[in-house]
Amino acid sequence: ILYIRKIKLDKLAELEKAKKLCADGGDIWNDKTKKCEENPLKKLLAKSLTDLNFKSASKEILASSFPFLDELAKNLVDYPTLTLTITGHTDSDGTDEYNQKLSEDRANSVKNYLIKKLIAENRLVAVGKGESEPISTLQTNEGKEKNRRVVMTLTQTK
Question: Can you say whether residue 119 is alpha, beta or left, with left for phi > 0 and alpha for psi between -120 and 50 degrees?
């Protein structure tokens, strides 16, 4: 009997670990199938690289970005246990200090927009990385443009 209980406890611990890994990745645990399913919000968040834009050298969100942000807000309502981290990045034009502040300001602009759409502030984290994490060359205009971005990630609310 003790052996059977230990097996059940081990399986339960494995299941809890799998649930935690799933949630930490921003995905959804399906209790019926005992499987981790991709959160549809992840695909939407990937669109931030193309559908979320700002005025040049500004924290002002372009109006063309509003439909994306409105869709994001609408979908966040469906997943109340997820936290959204909004990370702003810049190219290398300007000083390190200027770029750091600009990246923070842009992340906060997105956060504030979502708060106005009734997403709880405690579910939103704004971070600025300045020019510290480039994804492309900083030697060409095309490369610099790719580095001017806002990346969003989901995590399970603790």
Answer: beta
The Cα 61–Cα 94 span in angstroms is: 20
Distance CA 132, CA 91 (A): 9
Strand partners, 14: none
Token pair in block for residue 110? 């997105």
**Model confidence at 55: pLDDT above 80:** yes
Could you report the per-residue pLDDT of 95-152, keeping only the tens digit for each?
A: 999 999 999 999 999 999 999 999 999 999 999 999 999 988 878 888 888 888 999 9
Nearest to 68 by CA among 88, 87, 54: 54
67 contacts: CB under 8 Å, gap ≥ 6: 51
Which residues contact residue 35 at a Cβ distance below 8 angstroms, ignoring those fewer than 6 apart?
A: 29
d(CA 4, CA 113): 53
CA distance 46 to 152: 8
Gap between the Cα atoms of 69 and 52, Å rounded: 8
Provide the whole-model pTM: 0.77
Identity of the highest mean pLDDT range in 11-20, 63-72, 144-153: 63-72
Tell me, what's the pLDDT at 78? Answer: 87
